[in-house]
Amino acid sequence: MRLLLDTHIVLWWLNDDRKLGPHLRALIEDGDNDILVSSVSVAEIAIKRSQGKVTAPADLLNVLAEEGFRELPLLATHAAALEHLPLHHRDPFDRMLVAQALTESLALASHDAAIQRYGVEVITG
């Protein structure tokens, strides 16, 4: 499975948060799955970390690499896909993640109910 992690899932994983359910935790731990973290999530975490809104490692990129997560850059094709997304969600970070998941045919790990309205495969729990 190719699985793109929503930003809150990345944070829950890094902080060993109990909100991350056993099913999703098992998928992330499964070495046969391709786990991706978007540059969009890295940007969101950096912004929120600088504002004191989230707890994340200062060496985030190294930690993500050590976890075996692959980086998914925001490409022009992903950005162009934003034009065609309905406004089910107003958060630009989440909209970019949806565009990436749809463009790359990825499942998106998220607990955000609004994301499910886009028709992208969403993995919860």
Give the topology, please.
Blueprint: E1 2-5, H1 7-14, H2 22-29, E2 34-38, H3 39-50, H4 60-66, E3 70-72, H5 76-81, H6 92-104, E4 107-109, E5 122-123
Parallel strand pairs: 1-2, 1-4, 2-3, 4-5
**What's the CATH class, please?**
Alpha Beta
Query: CATH architecture, please?
Result: 3-Layer(aba) Sandwich
**Unreliable stretches:** none
Look at the helices and sheets and give the structural class: alpha/beta
Radius of gyration: 14 Å
Q: Give the CA-based shape.
A: globular
Helix content: 40-55%
Binned strand content: 5-15%
What's the helix-strand series? EHHEHHEHHEE
Number of helices: 6
Question: Notable features of this structure?
Answer:
5 strands; Rossmann fold; 6 helices; 125 residues; globular; alpha/beta
Structure overview:
The mean pLDDT is 96. 33% of the residues are buried. The chain has a single domain, classed as Rossmann fold (3-Layer(aba) Sandwich), CATH 3.40.50.1010. The chain has helices spanning 7-14, 22-29, 39-50, 60-66, 76-81, 92-104, and strands spanning 2-5, 34-38, 70-72, 107-109, 122-123. The protein is 43% helix and 14% strand. The protein has a five-stranded parallel sheet. It has 125 residues and is of the alpha/beta class.
